[in-house]
Write a structure and sequence with these properties.
Elements (H helix, E strand, L loop, with lengths): L5 H7 L8 H15 L31 E9 L10 E7 L25 E2 L7 H13 L9 H9 L3 H11 L2 H14 L5 E11 L12 E4 L5 H17 L10 E5 L6 E5 L25 H4 L2 E2 H9 L1 H6 L1 E4 L2 E9 L4 H15 L10 H12 L2 H6 E11 L2 E11 L2 H15 L25 H10 L1 H4 L16 H11 L3 E2 H18 L7 H16 L3 E2 L20 H5 L6 H15 L6 H22 L7 H4 L7 H19 L11 H9 L15 H16 L1 H11 L19
Parallel strand pairs: 1-4, 13-14
Antiparallel strand pairs: 1-2, 3-4, 4-5, 6-7, 7-8, 9-10, 10-11, 11-12
């Protein structure tokens, strides 16, 4: 475990509470700087270096042939540099070289970086491109072609500016450039990832700014003050001039830094790791002056550098979801040195894939990391800044932003979901639905932790909400994102919107299914989610919907034979009747007569459809005639008598039935006052809610025979009647 440098923390940790995104980003930068292995070589340039940006270009196995350090070696000990003083060295780029290179990153795709050391493309480069990388070290970065005036000024004013000027001379010499090209082609035999730099042989007697006592030796850029000064000058120029026209004055002035709150020399075009603030599109607004951006987005040099230093830690907390980039950034409002070490430890563990099992969301993995490495107070005080971004052709849109998320509310929802699955009659042989192997989050052995991870990752909402994200990513009102953020923040979920979304997803799944079958697994998942939200007191209902959130506490323990059969035989009919009654009695949502009727009509439709397919061999069943997404109140009036009639006819065709196939359902419907079907215009239940509970009933009915059969077997029943007739029925998604 890395111990952070105490002096760096003391110098740079933000004063006061961490209360904004910029302060979190700055905090991450401080952690990175305090973790740097600088030893006794601390310098004025430390904040400017970005060594972490080179990590992906290194290899710990020198025999690998796709990650290279290409060095332009130049002997500057003579009176005048000659072409033969320039040579190319190619070697595997190992991590031990990083501190020597003085690397300072610019934005990806830039022709050169701030430092003379340059990082090539992450996707790799061909040999001709490597030639350009090498020649640019001499003719571009040094201002030999007059394109880097900030470095040119350092060459003119720094006491060791002669070093840069000699490199300029070499960069203008075609023989030197040809020599570089020839050696690169000869020594670089493979394409791959490349970092290019220089290595100079110097006589320290000739240096005003010395970094070593020896007279003559080879120096990498990180050891040469004037090259670092050039890097710093270029960096500060970009802090004030990035995306400005040459004719614009620099965006720089004296003001209050938005990060530290202190008066300082501030810049207006600093790099923003999230690209929230740029001046690229100011031309669309005539009244905006890009050179005045320092007044609106005032960032001091140190704050800007720390923001950038922390970028890699922030990126470790990034995931993608529904076309969005989602950051879940952990922090403590009150920071001290111990907490800084704890936070850095878990962030780097996440970065190195040392916490979590690969499927864990960063928020879930990070909290577990804090639990293992921190104190109880740390776990209690841990917060996450959660922000979802959509990149619209370079324009960054903030879709959702919540600054102080804790896992308390998601954990409460996860607890409720676990109870629904394993501590209620919603699922199981006693009364409810079957769980589904491999179908998160209603699979057997689902744990509270698993559901919590599903919630924070967005999968919990993705599995039940309609999927509406386009090619450019989700919008702010897209249902999966909306529900995920309601769950993260503890805000209530309007029941009417939830049912609307459920039915939309059911319709969507039926349309996309070649057979247009009912998505029973999705419906069961929706039901589990609905019951969990109700149990967690997260549903927002109107007065006439209050029964949605009431429950009869009944566990999922199996009944006795006597409870199911009474004094009679332990038959499948008795088991079906027992299960249905117990399921209905435990659901506060089904105390409402309209909701109960819709559900029971669905059960009758599902059971009849199952009988038609499994016993009569019919391809088109009553579900195809009356699919949930086409049910209206008027059609409900038609469903009941038509299916009741079919059940009477079908009963005469089998030996095990009485007057009708499913008397237990018809009895319940009679008890529910079937006359309400005669007056559909008097119903107050919204149509979308009718459709959902009808679909839920259909799903229940399709597997009622199988569940009853399995219950009888579990109770030791052997009645001949208990023969399942649903072996041909397959689960639908």
């Amino acid at each position: 475990m890395t111990t952070l440098d105490s002096d760096t923390l003391t110098e740079y940790l933000p004063d006061g509470p961490i209360t904004s995104l910029r302060r979190i980003q700055t905090l991450y930068g401080v952690l990175e700087e305090a973790a740097g292995d600088k030893g006794s070589s601390k310098s004025e340039f430390d904040l400017y270096f970005t060594p972490g940006k080179l990590n992906d270009f290194t290899t710990r196995n020198p025999s690998e042939d796709d990650r290279y350090l290409v060095t332009v070696e130049i002997d500057l000990t003579g009176d005048k540099p000659l072409p033969q003083d320039v040579n190319i060295r190619v070697e595997a780029f190992t991590p031990d070289k990083i501190p020597l290179l003085g690397y300072a990153n610019y934005w990806p795709g830039a022709a050169i970086d701030h430092s003379i050391t340059h990082r090539g493309s992450k996707s790799g480069a061909d040999i001709d491109t490597v030639v350009t990388y090498c020649t640019d070290r001499l003719n571009r970065w040094t201002n030999a072609d007059d394109r880097e005036p900030a470095i040119g000024e350092v060459a003119d004013t720094h006491p060791d500016g002669w070093v840069i000027k000699r490199l300029q001379t070499l960069g203008r010499n075609k023989d030197v450039l040809n020599r570089i090209e020839s050696q690169v082609h000869r020594k670089c035999t493979n394409e791959g990832k490349f970092v290019t730099t220089v290595r100079l042989q110097l006589n320290s007697e000739n240096l005003a700014e010395k970094s070593a006592d020896s007279d003559i030796r080879w120096y990498y850029p990180g050891e040469i003050h004037v090259l670092n000064a050039g890097m710093k000058a270029r960096k500060e120029e970009k802090l004030a001039r990035k995306n400005l026209d040459d004719s614009d004055p620099p965006s720089r002035g004296n003001g209050v830094c938005m990060v530290t709150g202190e008066k300082d020399d501030v810049f207006g075009t600093t790099d923003d790791p999230f690209n929230f603030f740029t001046v690229q599109h100011a031309e669309k607004f005539d009244e905006l002056k890009r050179s005045n951006s320092w007044r609106n987005h005032s960032v001091s040099a140190n704050a800007a550098l720390l923001l950038q230093s922390g970028e890699s830690l922030a990126e470790a907390c990034r995931t993608t979801r529904n076309g969005l980039g989602v950051y879940t950034l952990p922090y403590f409002v009150e920071m001290d040195e111990r907490r800084a070490n704890t936070l850095y430890s878990v962030l780097t563990a996440l970065q190195n894939n040392e916490i979590g099992d690969g499927n864990d969301h960063p928020m879930f993995a990070l909290e577990n990391g804090i639990e293992n490495h921190g104190t109880d107070a740390d776990k209690r005080d841990l917060r996450f800044y959660v922000i979802s971004l959509r990149n619209d052709s370079g324009d960054i849109n903030v879709i959702h932003e919540v600054p102080d998320v804790s896992l308390y509310h998601p954990r409460e929802a996860a607890k409720a979901h676990e109870i629904v699955l394993d501590g209620s009659t919603a699922f199981g042989l006693a009364a409810g639905f079957e769980k589904v192997d491999g179908w998160e989050p209603i699979t057997p052995n689902t744990t509270k932790s698993g559901v919590l991870n599903s919630i924070v990752s967005g999968r919990y909402a993705w599995g039940t909400m309609p999927l509406t994200a386009g090619d450019d990513g989700a919008m702010a009102d897209d249902a999966p994102e909306w529900l995920t953020y309601q769950l993260l923040t503890g805000r209530s979920v309007p029941a009417d919107r939830l049912f609307d979304a459920y039915v939309d997803r059911i319709e969507q799944e039926r349309r996309e299914n070649d057979e247009h079958s009912l998505p029973s697994r999705h419906i069961r998942t929706q039901f589990a989610q609905f019951e969990a939200l109700a149990r967690a007191n997260r549903l927002e209902t109107s007065n006439d919907q209050s029964t949605l959130t009431t429950f009869t506490d009944m566990d999922d323990e199996l009944p006795s034979r006597e409870e199911v059969a009474g004094d009679g035989n332990l038959s499948k009919l008795a088991a079906r009747k027992y299960r249905l009654e117990r399921f209905l009695d435990a659901r506060g949502s089904l105390k409402n007569s309209e909701r109960r009727t819709a559900f029971l009509l669905g059960v009758l439709t599902g059971m009849t459809s199952h009988h038609q397919r499994a016993t009569r061999g019919m391809n088109r069943t009553v579900i195809d005639q009356y699919p949930p997404d086409q049910i209206t109140l008027d059609r409900l009036v038609t469903v009941f008598p038509e299916i009741s009639s079919k059940c009477h006819v079908y009963a005469s065709e089998v030996s095990w039935a009485g007057d009708t196939l499913f008397p237990e359902v018809l009895d319940e419907l009679t008890d529910t006052e079937t006359d309400i079907l005669e007056y559909p215009n008097d119903w107050t239940l919204p149509l979308r809610e009718v459709r959902f509970f009808y679909a839920l009933g259909v799903t229940y009915g399709q597997r009622a025979d199988r569940q009853a059969h399995d219950l009888v077997e579990a109770l030791g029943g052997t009645d001949d009647e208990n023969t399942p007739n649903d072996t041909t029925v397959e689960e639908t998604a």
